Amino acid sequence: xxxxxxxxxxYENGQVAVNNINLTLESGEMAYLKGHSGxxxxxxxxxxxxxxxxxxxxIILNNExxxxxxxxxxAYIRRQIGMIFQxxxxxxxxxxxxxxxxxxxxxxxxxxxxKRRVNAALDKVSLLHKQNSSPRTLxxxxxxxxxxxxxxxxxPSILLADEPTGNLDPELSAEILKLFEAFNKVGVTVLIxxxxxxxxxxxxxxxxxxxxxxxxxxxxxxxxxxxxxx
Amino acid sequence: xxxxxxxxxxxxAQTNKYSSLTQFSMDHVRAFLFALGEIVKKPFxxxxxxxxxxxxxxxxxxFYLLLSNFQLxxxxxxxxxxxxLYLKSSAPQIAIDQLIESLKTQPAIKSARYIxxxxxxxxxxxxxxxxxxxSHLSHNPLPGVISVEPQQQLSPQAxxxxxxxxxxxxxxxxxxVDSVWVKRLYYLVQIGERIFYTLTFIFSIGVVLxxxxxIRLIMQKHAQEILVMRLVGATKAFIRRPFLYxxxxxxxxxxxxxxxxxxxxxxxxxxxxxxxxxxxxxxxLLKGLNWETxxxxxxxxxxxxxxxxxxxxxxxxxxxxxx
Lengths: 230, 323
Prior knowledge:
The complex is a heterodimer of chains A (230) and B (323). Chain A is of the alpha/beta class and 230 residues long.
């Protein structure tokens, strides 16, 4: 569950990236965050990841007010979240397996369990055969999938994706979105930021539109209205 | 708000992890081995850092050894400072004996020895070869002397105080403290000690800065790794650990190198020093580093290495992530 209560993020130079946002994403919900670049999508995700701190308001994550979290607590909050970036920050001097295993090592899993989970995650993104390669030798689409495997390997309750299909052709993009839907089906809360409007024009999932750091449209409410009419 | 859904997906989330204590020790072992491995894997690059630390550390400790040897030498060669009580020529033998007995009972005095005028004359003749001059004198001009040896290495002030206390004794004519060289030696040693402390302080800061800078450069090289680890939920402690161990190893290995350097220096010096001692008619055994001092050096240098990496880490981990 992700909840934004009057969240504002402004920088020291006066720039306001996110302006008074109220938003609730229930557990197990999947939604798209739509908007042009600079609309505040990335900042919104970074606020959830605690890469940025809120200036005003509060963010509730799985019943915890994370805007107050300090120190090592931040690390434990991040373990509940899988984050996928447009250019996944991978370690090129490590193998694919080691890259995906990193969140598990950090969280203190047993070696046997690490092997089992990494294999399962790589299998899910169809990269099991590349587990001993360096990410350097992989294509962009494959690197993105390694990033996804790493994000889901700890089975987080929340999955955030920032332009996950930004560098991919439509076919690959559709494939990756299918992956997200599969995770959503097993109960993961998924929030995907994208500026690729064509990608989501036919989606039946919730679409939140951001502009100038504010929510200007939320299909959730329309959907509810439509339901009540019918 | 059902946040902790127990679908098959979420099952076994906790059971396959180590217990927190096991994880804690596992993390330490892993960081320890990792840090050691990083040093062993790149011996040349690390050797440079280590030799700098070793050289820097060897200076204050070499000086410390020289100083402690000097103190030892000064004790050996000069014995303890003496207070000479020149007696009145009219002093009867019984009074002298009584005085010696009473002096010996004083806690500050180790021994008191009477040197009669005849003995004094004899040794005077021996040392100065002025026999024939003295033979022209009608009587022995030397007074009887009680030579008092104080209990321990007293500071010049304490020695003077003791002399003052002995002055008003009835048969004593004059009290002379062997004080000039005592003062000189005392202050020389004190200057040496202070130079040692200053050197130690300055070079300790040097070691902290060297290790800190090295760790900072290493962290810059591993910036991407650190960033990724923080994003996937590594605690700062987890990230810090291998670097702290690395700083510790730099300090420890640098300390061992310093120990080696100082030992070589001592070996190199021992021969000419012994020759020098022989020319003074004395034998001298150079005091090397004993185990306690050696381990002390290693302990101090390890702590300094740890401090260095801590300083660098604080700086690095304070900055927010830039993704």
